[in-house]
Amino acid sequence: MPANKYALLRYRIIDKCIRNKYRPFPTKEELRHACEEALYGSDGDRISESTIEKDLWAMRNETELGFYAPIKFSKVEKGYYYEDPEYSIDAIPLNEDDVDAIRFAATTLFQFKDVEVFKQFEFAIEKIFDRLNITDNVDDQAINRYVQFETIAQANGSEFLGTLLHCIKERQIVEFSYEPFVRAGTKEYRIEPYLLKEYRNRWYLIGYNRSREAFLTYGLDRMTSLRSTEEVYQSDDQFNPDRFFKHSIGITSYDAEPVDVILSFSTTQGKYVKSQPLHHSQKVLVDDEKEYRIVIHVLISYELVMLLLGYGKEMKVLAPEKLVENVKEILSNSLSKYN
């Protein structure tokens, strides 16, 4: 990757750091560390402070870039900020070099899309590829007349992602106010953070709750505040995200034995389930002109039930009996609302 492409990526990283309202006024060393971490995955010495100084100058003055970023240094805060708080280089149209840089990054990610740690981002990676394959001009608004991409509103709580990721890496305990959907009122939590997980466009934190002596899941959209602490916790090497969610559909995981769930789909719906399995444990029991029957080995959870209900008349739960009765009761109660 040519040096100028690396510079383009560093400019984006610097811009993001300066605009981070939760860690304002980044120092030169903090900008250098952020670029090092993002590009090389370590806090090494591949990027020097002099490089960051040149980047800041280029962002302010380089005519070919066209950013003219209003970057200022605060002597009081001893860090950098934008004189115009609304400024962002994201608002600047991408040039050919930007597109090449994005294409290179997408190509690199695409090679690893089947690796377990990247699987949750596979859809996003492929969407970038689709957009670039349609047209190199990512600012071409005319394309929207012919191709409509799915857009999703940003969920509440995403502003906590940066702080939580930092605390996970540094093994710092976090404190936050939490307001569950199932009951009124806010409760304070003190958690050892271990993992951020996205499910259906919502972000969740999996952390160890000392008072409950268990790993629990917290929705970021239910956090009303978040505070990092200086207290460092001893990492539990037994926690493994893959094992933790091995038998889960969705975000729920608990200490219980998974069960065999047998489902019967219509032949038409079965084609969709065949092309996009419900779970990695999915096995085919029947596949003929009458039905498509499968078995999955999973935990019974709220997310599983909601997923199954979404298939409506195209699906029937055959086992276990407890799940059958649960689905029947929900459908019966739903029907009663129309009587």
**Main sheet specs:** 5 strands, antiparallel
Domains (count) = 4
Briefly note the CATH topology name of the largest domain.
Arc Repressor Mutant, subunit A
**Helix/strand/pairing class, anyone?**
alpha+beta
Number of distinct beta strands: 11
Quaternary organisation: single chain
- Global shape: globular
Strand order of the biggest β-sheet: 6-5-4-3-7
| CATH class category of the largest domain | Mainly Alpha
Quickly count the helices: 10
Radius of gyration: 24 Å
Distance between the termini: 65 Å
The arrangement of helices and strands along the chain is HHHEEHHHEEEEEHEHEEHEH
Uncertain stretches? none
Q: Examine the secondary-structure arrangement and name the CATH architecture of the largest domain.
A: Orthogonal Bundle
- The mean pLDDT is 84
Helix content: 25-40%
Amount of beta strand: 15-25%
What's this entry about, in short?
The protein has ten helices and eleven strands. The protein has 339 residues and is α+β, with helices and mostly antiparallel strands.
Q: What would you say this structure looks like, in words?
A:
- This protein has about 350 residues and is α+β, with helices and mostly antiparallel strands.
- It has four domains: about 5-90, Arc Repressor Mutant, subunit A (Orthogonal Bundle), CATH 1.10.10; about 100-145, no CATH class; about 160-245, SH3 type barrels, CATH 2.30.30; about 260-335, 2-Layer Sandwich (Alpha-Beta Plaits), CATH 3.30.70.
- It is built from ten helices and eleven strands.
- The strands form three sheets. The protein has a five-stranded antiparallel sheet with strand order 6-5-4-3-7, with helices on one face. It has a four-stranded antiparallel sheet with strand order 9-10-8-11.
- Strand 9 and strand 10 (about 290-300) form a beta hairpin.
- Helix 1 crosses helix 2 (about 30-40) and helix 4 crosses helix 5.
- The longest helix is centred in the N-terminal third of the chain and has 17 residues, at about 5-20.
- The radius of gyration is 24 Å and the shape is globular.
